[in-house]
C-alpha cells in the first residue's frame, strides 16, 4: 500500500473554488465589498511576495468569527452542488481510480475548508481529508481561529508527514499531485511528485528536477489517451 495525495483547486478541479466562493458570497450579501476587497488585496500582496499565504489564510479565518457553523456548511453544500461538482478534471477522476485499483490510500491535501473538502471526499470516495478546519464554540459559532496548523506550504508537509507516519508508509512511497509552487515542501519529499497544469514557477522547477508534468484536461473535453503527457 502507498498513499496518493491530491491537491484540490486547479488540480482535481479546473477552477479555484476559493475565488469563486468569495465572488458568490459577495453577490449574495454574505460578505461586504470591503471584505472582498481585503481578500483580493491580501492575495495580491502574497503574489507580490509581501506577505505569506499562511498569514492571509489566518486573516481570512478571523472573518468567520461569530458566524454559525451550520449556516456556513449549508451554504457550502449549495455552492458545491451548483458550481464546483461539475469542475473535476477528467484526468483527475481517472488518476484517482488508477490509484484506487492499485490499492493505494487516497488523500485530499488542500488549503480548502473542511466543509468543501468533505464533499469532494464523499463524491470521489477518498480515504482521508487533510485541510483547513475552524474552531467552533459550544454554541456552534466560529471563533475566528483555525484548528491546528494552517494547511498551506510547510503546513501541508506537516499534515502529510503525520498521516503517512500513522499509516506506516514512508513519504518516499507516496505520490503528490498539485498545480502550485507553494506545495514544493511536499513535492520535494514524496517519491512521485507530479505537476498538474502547474503554475509558471512549479513548471520551471518540475522540468529542472525531471518531475512529471501532466495535462488532466478540463470538464467536458475528453483527453486523448494516446497523446503524450505535457512534459516528461
Q: How would you sum up this structure, described in words?
A:
This protein is of the alpha/beta class and 232 residues long. It has a single domain, classed as 3-Layer(aba) Sandwich (Rossmann fold). The chain has 10 helices and 8 strands. The strands form 2 sheets. The chain has a 6-stranded parallel sheet. It holds the Pfam family HAD. Keywords: Hydrolase, Magnesium, Metal-binding. One of its GO terms (molecular function) is hydrolase activity. It comes from Archangium minus.
Can you lay out the helices and strands and say which pair or pack?
Blueprint: E1 3-6, H1 8-12, H2 17-27, H3 33-47, H4 53-62, H5 69-84, H6 90-101, E2 105-113, H7 114-124, E3 128-132, E4 134-136, E5 142-146, H8 154-167, E6 174-178, H9 184-187, E7 192-196, H10 200-209, E8 212-214
Parallel strand pairs: 1-2, 1-6, 2-3, 6-7, 7-8
Antiparallel strand pairs: 4-5
TL;DR of this structure?
The protein has helices at residues 8-12, 17-27, 33-47, 53-62, 69-84, 90-101, 114-124, 154-167, 184-187, 200-209; strands at 3-6, 105-113, 128-132, 134-136, 142-146, 174-178, 192-196, 212-214. The protein has 232 residues and is of the alpha/beta class. It has a six-stranded parallel sheet.
Number of individual domains: 1
Approximate helicity band: 40-55%
CATH class: Alpha Beta
Could you give a short account of the major beta sheet? Answer: 6 strands, parallel
Low-confidence stretches: 224-232
- Provide mean pLDDT, rounded: 87
> What's the count of strands?
8
What structural class do helix, strand and pairing data support? alpha/beta
Radius of gyration: 18 Å
Overall spatial form: globular
- Separate helix tally: 10
Q: Which fold name fills CATH's third level, the topology?
A: Rossmann fold
Amino acid at each position: 500500500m502507498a498513499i496518493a495525495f491530491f491537491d484540490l483547486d486547479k488540480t482535481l478541479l479546473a477552477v479555484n473554488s476559493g475565488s469563486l466562493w468569495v465572488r458568490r458570497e459577495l453577490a449574495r450579501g454574505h460578505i461586504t465589498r470591503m471584505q472582498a476587497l481585503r481578500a483580493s488585496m491580501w492575495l495580491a500582496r502574497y503574489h507580490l511576495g509581501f506577505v505569506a499565504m499562511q498569514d492571509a489564510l489566518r486573516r481570512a479565518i478571523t472573518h468567520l468569527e461569530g458566524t454559525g457553523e451550520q449556516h456556513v456548511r449549508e451554504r457550502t453544500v449549495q455552492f458545491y452542488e451548483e458550481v464546483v461538482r461539475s469542475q473535476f478534471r477528467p484526468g483527475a477522476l481517472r488518476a484517482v481510480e488508477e490509484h484506487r485499483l492499485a490499492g493505494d490510500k487516497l488523500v485530499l491535501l488542500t488549503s480548502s475548508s473542511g466543509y468543501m473538502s468533505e464533499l469532494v471526499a464523499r463524491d470521489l470516495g477518498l480515504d482521508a481529508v487533510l485541510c483547513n478546519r475552524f474552531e467552533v464554540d459550544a454554541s456552534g459559532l466560529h471563533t475566528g481561529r483555525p484548528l491546528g496548523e494552517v494547511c498551506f506550504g510547510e503546513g501541508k508537509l506537516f499534515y502529510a508527514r503525520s498521516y503517512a507516519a500513522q499509516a506506516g508508509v514512508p513519504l518516499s512511497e507516496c505520490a503528490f499531485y498539485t498545480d502550485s509552487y507553494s506545495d514544493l515542501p511536499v513535492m520535494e519529499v514524496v517519491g512521485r511528485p507530479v505537476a498538474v497544469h502547474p503554475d509558471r514557477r512549479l513548471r520551471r522547477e518540475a522540468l529542472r528536477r525531471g518531475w512529471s508534468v501532466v495535462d488532466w484536461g478540463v470538464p467536458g473535453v475528453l483527453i486523448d489517451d494516446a497523446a503524450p503527457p505535457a512534459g516528461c
